[in-house]
Amino acid sequence: MIGIFDSGIGGMTVARAVEQLLPNYPLLYLGDIARTPYGCKSARTIIEYSINNTRFLLENGAKLIIIACNTASSVATDRLRQEFNVPIIEVISPAVEQAIVCSQKGRIGIIGTRATIRSGVYETKILAQQPEYMVFSTACPLLVPLVEEGWIAKRETKMILRRYLHSLKERQIDTLVLGCTHYPLLKHLIQPRIGRKVTLIDSSVAVAEYLQNYLAGQTVLTPDGSHDPTRNRYFVTDITESTQFIAAKIFHRPIDLQPI
Length: 260
Ligand code: DGL
Description:
Layout lengths: L1 E5 L5 H10 L5 E5 L11 H17 L4 E4 L2 H14 L4 E3 L1 H11 L4 E6 L1 H6 L1 H9 L4 E6 L3 H6 L6 H16 L4 E5 L7 H8 L4 E4 H14 L16 E4 L6 H9 L5 E3 L1
Parallel strand pairs: 1-2, 1-3, 2-9, 3-4, 5-6, 5-7, 7-8, 9-10
C-alpha cells in the first residue's frame, strides 16, 4: 500500500494524481489538518509532525511513503529516511526535473510557503544541475489558508495572487514551479496572472509520474488488478467546514474522510 501524507488537504492533489495514473495501487492518505499549516513552523516541529505522520501510515499498512507536502519535503526528508527503513519519496526533485526540462530561457520562478522558500531547496537542486539558470523565489504565506478556507475563486484571492506574482512577472520567468501541494487548486487563477506563455509545473503530476517509474523498477509493491480507487482510505486529524468541500472538488467525487 502507498502511504501519502500532507499537513492538510493540499496533498490530496498528489493522491488524486497518483490515483489517476496508478489506479491499481491501494492508497492510504493522512492529512494533518489539526496542525496545519506547517509552512510557518520551525524545522524541528515540522520534522516531529512528519515522523508522527509516517509512523501512522506504516502502522496502517503502508510500504512506501510519499511526502505530499513541499514544506515537509524540504526540511524532513533526510530525517525520515534515517528513521524509517522504507522508500520515502519527496515532491521536490520530480518538480525540479520537469522545470529544467520545460524551461527554454533558464529563468525559473518558485512559489511556496515560507519554510520551503527559506530552505532554498529548489534553488540548490536546480543550480546543482544547471548553474547558469536564474531562479527567483517568492514566499506566498497567505495562499494555503485561502485554499483551506475554500476561497479558490474569490476576488481577494485574485488580488493577493497578483501581488505575489508581480516580481516574478517582472523577472520574465518562463517556468513557474507550484512549490506547494495546495497551489494546483489555484492554477486557473495563477496562469492568467503570471502570463499564458509561462509553463506551470504542478508537483502533484510530477511526483505521480516519478512514482510510476519508481514502481516499474521494484518488487516491494505490486499492483492489484481488482483494486477500486474509491476504496482508498483518507484519514484526517480534524475536519473543518470546508474540508469535505475541497476534498470533493479535488477528486470530483465525495470523499469519506475518517477523523483520527
Ligand atoms: N501543502 C504544504 C506544502 O506543500 C503547505 C501547507 C502548510 O503550510 O502546511 O508546502
